[in-house]
Amino acid sequence: MIKRSCLLLLCCLVLFTQCKNANNQAKQKKIAVVISTLNNPWFVFLGETAAAKAKALGYDAKIFDSQNNTALETDHFENIIVSGFDAILFNPTDANGSVANVLKAKAAGVPVFCMDREINSADAATSQILSDSYSGAVAIGKYFTQQLNKKGNYVELLGLVGDNNTWARSKGFHSVVDNYPNLKMVAQQSADFDRNKAMEVMESILQAHPDVDGVFCGNDAMAMGAYQALVSAGKKGKVKVFGFDGAEDVITAISENKVAATGMQFPKVMAETAAEFADQYIKGKKDFPKKIPVAVELVIAKNVNDYIAYGKK
Amino acid sequence: MKRIIKYILILLVIGLAGYKSVYFEKLSELKNTATEKFDAAAYSKKLWEEQLPVKMDSAIELSSLVKLIESDPADAFSKYSNALGIGNYRYSLVKATGTVAVINEDDIIMQVSHADSLMTIRLATEYIYGNALRDASKLIDIKDFTNTADLNDISEGLNKKVRTTILPEFKNQVKQGDKIEVTGAVEFNKEHINFKDLELIPARIKILK
User: Fold this and answer.
1) Rounded-to-integer distance, Cα A114 and Cα A271, Å
2) B38-208 classified as CATH 2.40.50.420
3) Do residues A157 and A218 touch, judged by C-beta distance below 8 A?
4) How many residue pairs bridge chain A and chain B with CB atoms within 8 Å of each other?
5) Are B185 and B133 in contact (CB under 8 A)?
6) Which residues are within 8 A (CB) of B198 and not within 5 positions of it... i.e. 6 or more apart?
7) Quick check: pTM over 0.90?
8) Has the ipTM of the complex gone over 0.95?
9) Is A9 in the B-facing interface, judged by CB distances under 8 Å?
10) Per residue in B23-53, pLDDT tens?
C-alpha cells in the first residue's frame, strides 16, 4: 500500500513537471493577433502586418477578428489563454470594455501589446504602441490656423465618441486653435468616422452655417465625406478640409488640392514594433514603456510626394 | 504511515490549487495609485527653470550639426537628437547666431553663417506648439510616465513658457539687421532631411546688436 502511494505521489510530480515543460515549449511558438474588425482595410493591414512580423520572428501567428464586439473579443481571449498562446498583439474594440480581457490574459501570464487603440488602464497591458494622435492633431491645428490666417468659421467632425483617439485628436487640435479668438467653431458633431454619415452631417451643417471657411475631421473617411458635401453645395475649393489617417484617397486629394492636410499614421510601424516587443518579452525582457507614441506626420501639398497610403514612399 | 502519505498528497493538491488562486494587495497602495495626479505645470516649471538652462549651455551649434548630418546622418541623429516616440521625427537642441533679415507677423527670417555661405532659418515667434523643446532637451524618460496626456502637458507647459516669458519682450525689441543669439529646438524628418525650411523654436534669445 505504501509502495502504491509513493508511486502515485511520484506520478503526480512527474505529471506536474511535464505539464510545465509542455507549456514552456508552446510559449515559444504561438502569438495571437486580435483585431477589432477586419471589415476596415486599415485594420486588416495592421493585423496582417503584425502576423507577418511574428512569423518572420519564428512564431506561429493566428489572427482573430473581434467584429467590433467586446463579447466576441472575450471569447477570443479565453480561447487564446486555454490554447497556450505566448503573447497577444491586440487592437482593442473598446477602451474601457477591453480592459477586463487584458487583465484576464495578464492573470494567466500572457503578455498583451496593444496596437493603435488604447485601453483605459495604466498597467493591464505590457505595453501600448499608439499613434501620437494628440501631437499629430497639434500639427494639423497649427497648419489649419496658418491656412485660415487665424480667423474664420469652422466645423469639427468628431469620430466615435467612445474612442480615445477621437478626443486625443480633438484636444490636440483645440490646444492650438483655441488660442485664436477670431477662429469660431460654428458646429461640432460626431460622424462616427464614417464617410456617408460625414457627408450627411456636413450637408445639414451647411444649411445652418453656409459661411464656413474650414472643416477639421477626425479621420480621412469623414474628410472625404465632408468634401463631397461641399462639392454638392457648390463650395468646392472655397472651404479648406483637413483629415487624419493618411488614407490613399486623401493623399491623392491633397495632391489635387481638394484636401488641405492629413496626419499620416504608420500602422506598419505599430504592428512590427508590437511583434518585436512580444519577441523580446518571450526572450526575457520585461521592462517596456507602458505607452509608446508613434509619430504622426503632417502631409500637405508641399510634401505629399514623399508619402503613399499609410506610410512613406 | 499510509494516512501520513494521504495527508501529504491532499496538502500538496490544496497547496497547488491555492497557490495561484489568491493574491493580496494593500488597499492603501491601490488608493494612492488611483488618486495621484501629475502636476504638469509644476513639472514643466522645474524643467524650465532648473534643468533646461544647463542643457542649453551645452547645445551644439546649428551649423556644426548640419555639417555632421550631411556627412553621417545616422551618427549625427544618434548623438545629437532625441524623440520620445517611434518614428521619423527627431529633435535637437541647437544654438545659432545670425542676423535678422526679415521680421514677419509669425516668424523671423534669420541668416546664419554656414561653411562659406549663409544659411537661412525661420525663427518661430507665433506658433510655438509641438514636442520639439520637450524631446530635444533629453530630460524626459518615457518609462517614467504611464499616461501620454502627462507628456503632452509637459510640452504645452514648456511652449507656454516660451510664448509668455521669452517672446513678448523679444518681439518688442528686435529690429531688422540686429545680430541675435538663439538657443532652441529644431525638428528634422530623418527620412526626408530638408535644411532649406528649418524652423527654430526659441528657448533663450539674446539681442547682440
Assistant:
1) 9
2) yes
3) yes
4) 92
5) yes
6) B62, B119, B121, B122, B186
7) no
8) no
9) yes
10) 555 555 555 544 468 899 999 999 999 999 9
